[in-house]
Amino acid sequence: xxxxxAAGHSTAATYATRPGGASQAxxxxxxxxxxxxxxxxxxxxxxxxVVNASSGGADWAVTxxxxxxxxxxxxxxxxxxxxxxTDAVFSGAAVHYDESALPDPIxxxxxxxxxAETGILAVHPRAVIARPSLIIGHGRSExxxxxHQLASGTVxxxxxxxxxxxxVHIDDLAAALLELAESDAAGIHHLGGADALSRxxxxxxxxxxxxxxxxxxxxxxxADSALSGALDVRLHSQATQRQLRTTLRGAREFLRPGA
Length: 259
Description:
Elements: H1 2-6, E1 12-15, E2 26-29, H2 35-45, E3 49-52, H3 60-77, E4 80-84, E5 96-97, H4 108-123, E6 128-132, E7 135-136, H5 142-152, E8 159-160, E9 164-165, E10 168-169, H6 170-182, E11 187-191, E12 197-198, H7 199-209, E13 219-220, E14 234-235, H8 238-241, H9 251-254
Helix pairs in contact: 2-3, 3-4, 5-7
C-alpha cells in the first residue's frame, strides 16, 4: 500500500479483527467467509485492482474458499486480481520448482493455498497467482522475530540446517506485485529471492545484520523433528524476473549489514 500510494494510486485496505498500521489507509471490515460482505465492499470501493495477501493458515474457509469467492466477485466487477500464494504448495520432492511445476502439497495449509490457486484461475483466468518464499524485511517478519528470541534465549527451538527456501525481501515483493498488477500478466508467477539457503543460514544473516551473536542460534535437522512440511523447496523465479524491472534480491545481498 505504501508503494502504491507513492506511485500516485489511491488505496483501501481490509481487516478481519482490527485495522492495521497504515494510518493513511481507508479501512473496511471484511471476513472472506462472508460472500455478501465481500460483494458489498467491492461495490463500495470499486477498485481497479485487488491484492489478496491474507491467509487463514489451514482454515479451508479462509485460505481456500474465501479467495475463490473474492475472485468470482472481482471477475463480476471487472477488477484485476493478484493472489499471494506460497511455496508451501510444493512437497520438496523435486527440490527445484519453476512456474510450470504442478502443486503437490503435503500440509493442510499448502493444500488450501493450492486449492485457492486452482479455483481462482478457473473463475478469473486473467488473475495473477504470485508465489513468494519466506518474506523478510524491516525486522517485522516472524522469521526475524524468532531469530531475536532464540539469540536472547527467551524461547526454545532451533533453526534447521536442512530446511531450504529462497527468501524474498518485502520491498522487492511489494514492487513485483505492483508491476505484475499493472502489466497484462496472468497465471502463475514465482517471486522467490535469488539465493537458496537454510533457515539456519538465514538466521545467521539476520543476526549479523542486527548485531546479535549468531553463535547463540541453536541448529538442528527438521528431518529429526516432528514438524510436518517440505524440506527443500527452491523456487525458480527466472521466468518472472525477466518480466520485471524490480530485482528479486537474494538474502545474502539484502541482509548484508548496512544494506
